[in-house]
From TrEMBL, chains A, B:
Pfam families: TGT. The gene is tgt. Keywords: Glycosyltransferase, Metal-binding, Queuosine biosynthesis, Transferase, tRNA processing, Zinc. It is an enzyme of class 2 (transferase). GO terms for biological process: tRNA queuosine(34) biosynthetic process. This is Queuine tRNA-ribosyltransferase. Its EC number is 2.4.2.29. It comes from Terrimicrobium sacchariphilum.
Length: 345, 345
């Protein structure tokens, strides 16, 4: 899922997202609540009409941003009091408020409101936090159960439990008891080493039902995503394709490429040989490097398009490999090819 | 002509320019000489291949930028010594150098190298400057005459003469004696009041041949352009559509519109009712205002598209009105409608 934090995937239009084959995008509940506000978006017909995206939208719960962006947080059983990062307005979001905001946005997949403990985190703290997250998950489910059936979106629960295998397992098991339409693994890619990130997935996954979507939140690099697909993950959201693009960094099967490098100044080739994206079909590395050096918006637009194409295409390729029964081979080749080059860079 | 200073019309892709119906774009010789350099562009196949624009490109001569951007200028009969605005590299551009740079870029319409006196400017200074510009125009013409015929671009002369009617007339007459494929009026929109700007056109135009394109350089507002069309001008280049867009200001037939204004926060209408551009066909003022307030690139992209559509469509409408014999009526209605609203704003 390309990430549309403030109601737009950065630097990319809905038409371009369609052409890239994006099936779904993510919107950030916290950001849209702070600006322009879900009530305004609702009065204008919901987020789909507001931003001109007619395919599914998943909204996160705001939990992660409350814990990473907001100031003067105070956590209670009810929810979180905080001052927003823009103008410091005192705000309260609890499970019910998060559900109401996501309903007003007109989301298609709604996430439960969770507490996101920092990394590293002592086991006792992680355990207390997880219990609160589970009680909030119950309240989110109850809130949705009370809503009218018509056009009710899907509700996904979020596994927490920091780096503790037992907590991850307990979190997944308890969520499944509550019952959700899909399950996410949160609290990953928060600063932990990659083996711990993979372990968090491995400790949760066996307890999640096979017939429900599994979603790893807020990551990752291309090999990380392929490794997580191998561990049963179906969905991802990640800001890397657009964030790195704005710095002039492109993704390729051989690793990342800093297009600012002087070595590309006269390079007549596309960002990635054989790539079918608009940038690669029409422009040279030399031109894109010039645009980035000259701080021209078209430069980061082109790299954003390429990177989103790369990510979406990687997932398409993984899906096809699974269907055709050669995922293991694809995984091995892709991860080896990508890492080798990164080490060389 | 949309302006592509550094080899790209700011925030807009070649595909979008095609869809907007742009027939020709402008490239800035000075900027492209400084970065990435015309030799590099030439080795990559010329500016058209470099930036992926397959329709005509007009390049200015660099004169205006040398006199507005560069530092430590020293003017001699040969040309201008200066330090570029980016890293202070000492550089020399005279008529022949300007011609060579424009040839290397692969321009379709090449402009003569001129001295651009400041405004205001005493008559003696303006007269001396004009004589130098005319001698440089002869050298530009001679340089082009010495070039092989195959795929030789068009060469346009530039009328100078500041705010002095006799100098403007003399400049036009002398240029016509030298003989060019088209004629531009330069040294306008450099800080003078609008009546003086119009007078500069009026003092030059009668001396320019009817069967050659006339081009007013570096302007203007929509009513200014319509007024200049009424005075015989055929071509314009102007940064206003894209520059104002980046500040969230949109052009409409009723005047400019600052989309940041709180009054548009919940406005469900398009930027301009009846407009067929991508922004107006798909997005509300409310959404675009949100994007601009949130400093999202898509916001300035959408306003850039709208503004370029507005300018290009204005010229299409003026052309049609001329062909259909009702230009006087169109001019009166458009200028009245635009100005009235600006006064109200």
């Amino acid at each position: 899922m390309p990430v549309g934090t403030q109601g737009t995937v950065k630097a990319v239009s809905p038409r371009e997202l369609h052409e890239l084959g994006a099936q779904i995008i993510l919107g950030n509940t916290y950001h849209l609540h702070v600006r322009p506000g879900e009530k305004l978006i609702s009065r204008l017909g919901g987020l789909h009409r507001f931003n001109g995206w007619d395919r599914p939208i998943l909204t996160d719960s705001g939990g992660f941003q409350v814990f990473s962006l907001a100031r003067l947080r105070k956590i209670t059983e009810d929810g979180v009091h905080f001052q927003n990062h823009l103008d410091g307005t005192p705000t309260f979001i609890g499970p019910e408020q998060s559900m109401e905001i996501q309903r007003d946005l007109g989301s298609d997949i709604v996430m439960t409101f969770d507490e996101c403990p920092p990394y590293p985190c002592e086991e006792a703290v992680a355990s207390t936090s997880l219990d609160l997250t589970l009680r909030w998950a119950v309240r989110c489910k109850e809130w949705w159960a009370s809503q009218p059936d018509e056009s009710k979106p899907l509700l996904f629960g979020i596994v927490q439990g920091s780096s503790y295998p037992e907590l991850r397992a307990k979190s997944a098991q308890e969520l499944v008891k509550i019952g959700f339409d899909g399950y996410a693994v949160g609290g990953v890619s928060v600063g932990e080493p990659e083996p711990e990130m993979m372990a968090a997935i491995e400790n949760a996954e066996p307890h999640l039902p096979q017939d429900r979507a599994r979603y790893a939140m807020g990551l990752g690099t291309p090999p990380q995503m392929v490794e997580m697909v191998a561990r049963g993950i179906d969905m991802f959201d990640c800001v890397l394709p657009t964030r790195l693009a704005r710095n002039g960094t492109a993704f390729t099967a051989a690793g990342t490429m800093a297009l600012k490098n002087a070595g590309y100044a006269e390079d007549p080739g596309p960002i990635e040989e054989g790539c079918t994206c608009y940038a690669c079909a029409n422009f040279t590395r030399a031109y894109i490097r010039h645009l980035i050096k000259a701080e021209e918006i078209l430069g980061l637009r082109l790299v954003s398009l390429h990177n989103l194409h790369f990510y979406l295409n990687l997932m398409r390729t993984a899906r096809r490999a699974i269907i055709e029964g050669n995922f293991a081979e694809f995984r091995r080749a892709f991860v080896a090819g990508y890492k080798k080059n990164e080490a060389n860079a």
